[in-house]
Amino acid sequence: MEFRVEDLGLVPYGEAWAYQKRVHREVVAGSRPPTLLLLEHPRVITLGRKATGENLLFPESWYRENGFELYWVERGGDVTYHGPGQLVGYPIFPVGREVRRFLRQIEEAIVRVAAAYGISAYPTPGYAGVWVGEEKLCAIGVAVKEGVSFHGFALNVNTDLNDFTVIIPCGLKGKGVTSLEKLLGRKVPMAEAKAKVVEAFAQVFGLRPVWEGKAHETQV
C-alpha cells in the first residue's frame, strides 16, 4: 500500500485547516489514499481540546496585535506554537480505534528522524511528544473523526524558539523547547528534514510514499 505526500510550503493556518478537512473527507470516502501533508505556518498559536486559556501568558487580543494568529481547534493537547522554520505534518490516515497506537507510531517516526541526525530523542509516557533531555523537540496532537486522523505533529527544525516564550508550551511548566538547529549548531535544510520524515513514516507505517508538490523535486 502507499500513502500520498503533499508538500504545501508556507500556508496560513486557517487555509491549511480547511484543506485538512477536505482531504479528511476524501480519505473517509475512500477516494484518496492515506495522505501526509507537510507544510510551514506563519506565526500562530493553537489551543487544543485540553486548553482553557490559562497557559496563554497574555490576553488573546495581545497575540493578534503582535503578529500571531490564534485558533481554538479540535486536536488533542493544550496550547502550542507554529511558525516558519517548523515542519508541521498532518497525517490523514485511517486509524480506526487504535488512536494510542497511532500516536506511538508518530512518535517513533520522529525519534527515527532525530536518530538520523545523530540525536537521541524519546517519547514520554502519559502525553504525546518527542523530547531531548528536558526539552521538547516535537509536539504531537491529533483528532480522529469517522476513524480517520487529522492534525498531527510540529517538529522544530529551524524554528525561532523565542516565540515559544509567549505561552506555556503544551501547559508543561518548567520544561523547555529545542530544535534540530539548536541541537546540531547549524541550519537544517527543510527539504532534507521533510525527506527524512517521509522515510521514517514509510518505515514505521509500512507504506510506500508517493510525493506531490515541491518536495517531489528533491526525490531523485
TrEMBL record:
Highest taxon listed in the record's lineage: Bacteria
UniProtKB keywords: Acyltransferase, Cytoplasm, Transferase
Entry keyword annotation includes Metal-binding: no
Function field: Catalyzes the transfer of endogenously produced octanoic acid from octanoyl-acyl-carrier-protein onto the lipoyl domains of lipoate-dependent enzymes. Lipoyl-ACP can also act as a substrate although octanoyl-ACP is likely to be the physiological substrate.
Extra information: In the reaction, the free carboxyl group of octanoic acid is attached via an amide linkage to the epsilon-amino group of a specific lysine residue of lipoyl domains of lipoate-dependent enzymes.
Subcellular location: Cytoplasm
InterPro entries (alphabetical): aa-tRNA-synth_II/BPL/LPL, BPL_LPL_catalytic, Octanoyltransferase, Octanoyltransferase_CS
Entry binding sites for substrate: 75-82, 139-141, 152-154
Lineage, broadest ranks: Bacteria, Thermotogati, Deinococcota, Deinococci, Thermales
Active site: 170 (acyl-thioester intermediate)
Site (Lowers pKa of active site Cys): 136
Pathway in which this enzyme or protein is active: Protein modification; protein lipoylation via endogenous pathway; protein N(6)-(lipoyl)lysine from octanoyl-[acyl-carrier-protein]: step 1/2
The protein's name: Octanoyltransferase
Gene3D superfamilies named in the record: Bira Bifunctional Protein, Domain 2 (3.30.930.10)
Family: Belongs to the LipB family.
EC id: 2.3.1.181
GO MF terms, alphabetically ordered: lipoyl(octanoyl) transferase activity
Domain spans labelled BPL/LPL catalytic: 30-209
Originating organism: Thermus composti
Catalytic activity as recorded in UniProt: octanoyl-[ACP] + L-lysyl-[protein] = N(6)-octanoyl-L-lysyl-[protein] + holo-[ACP] + H(+)
Pfam families, per database record: LplA-B_cat
